[in-house]
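I am still learning, so would you mind making up any protein sequence you like and the tokens describing how it folds?
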Amino acid sequence: MNSAAVQASSTNYDEFTNKLGEYLANNDQLVAVVILEASNTPRIDARFGRSHRDAQLAALSDAIDASIRDTDFAIQIGDYTFAVIVPGLKNKGHATLAGRKLQRVVQPEMPEPKRDLGLVECRLGIALAPLHADEALALVKRAQLALELAKDSNRDLVIYDDDTVGQVSVAWELRDDLAEAIRESELEVFYQPKLNVQTDEVYGAEALVRWFSVKRGPVAPDVFIPVAENSELIQPLTRYMLNTAMRSMMMWQRDGHDIGVAVNLPSSMLLDGGIVTMLEALLTIWDLDKGRLTLELTESALMRDIDTSIDTMKRLKDLGARLSIDDFGTGYSSFSYFKNIPADELKIDKFFVNNMCNDMADQHIVETIIGLAHRFKMKVVAEGIEDAATLELLKKLGCDIAQGYHIAKPLSEKDYDSWLDARRYAQPLL
């Protein structure tokens, strides 16, 4: 780089560290090392092909080269990784500005109709000399640690500080423990019941993963699921969830319960298309009736790459899965896209459901979503039902399916079996 894009090699890395050593020896002000990684290249490869991916990486290299000053230096040091030396900075704030400037150049904001062009998305890690290290290899290592923290915490830019090593170490240790938990079957799937609002009959359940670690004790889903989503663990975790849910459905079918299960689908798997192959293989094992399995996709995940999302959704429906749009109403979907989404149901976020009996605005939103879904031949699921009054109002508004603690909390498979048996003789909740 610096004049033309180059291919990554160990020689490039050595050239970069040698050049950085020269900068450190001849500069009285702060010198920043910026490590930039193109984070979505596997998805670009899967959707657009390798030639398009390589073209985008070359364009990224050219953009970096065009944006840096004559006093800066940049080079590609990995398959999807670039390194930039930015000397002559006065403080950490200037380093942040330099990083943000680089981001704007390599990842410009696109107007919505042109958003999905297979462009790269980047994360940056930054370290400063002599603030964080005064030797080249150590400084690069700290910038790489900052990049790892950016990936683990789902941030686009992180500047190294004294806590970075600890945070990265904690994240890596948690990732290792989660990998072991998946291998050793330490995870458990719980099921939160769903009711048909209009008939009070059991409709099915949502599968929710729980981790009761021998080493750590109970680990909250909002702690370990992001770790899985930002690593290669999301695939085995998703496979475990689907496989367990399908086995449970087969057992309930054998016992005479005509119910289905919904499983949350990670956005990364929706966008790389790997879920299609995984689901096809699992369906051949369990031979479920069509429509028993529902995959829940968040609205925000769909809008990250609407064309790829719709394509994957159509392939999933061809396999017999039902599709649900989770957290509907909290995202930023456009009706121009919504009409083309091949979903079977919309799931209203509990943010609107919780207070709808006391807030007419929330009630109007829920009523509008129900009407919209029904016009598009979709069912509506309301989550977060905490009391009988909310369930009664949802029935009046025409909602189809409900879940929440008023109906039942998430239950282990054994407890869900008992709950199903008890429902045969229970009085209606309304």
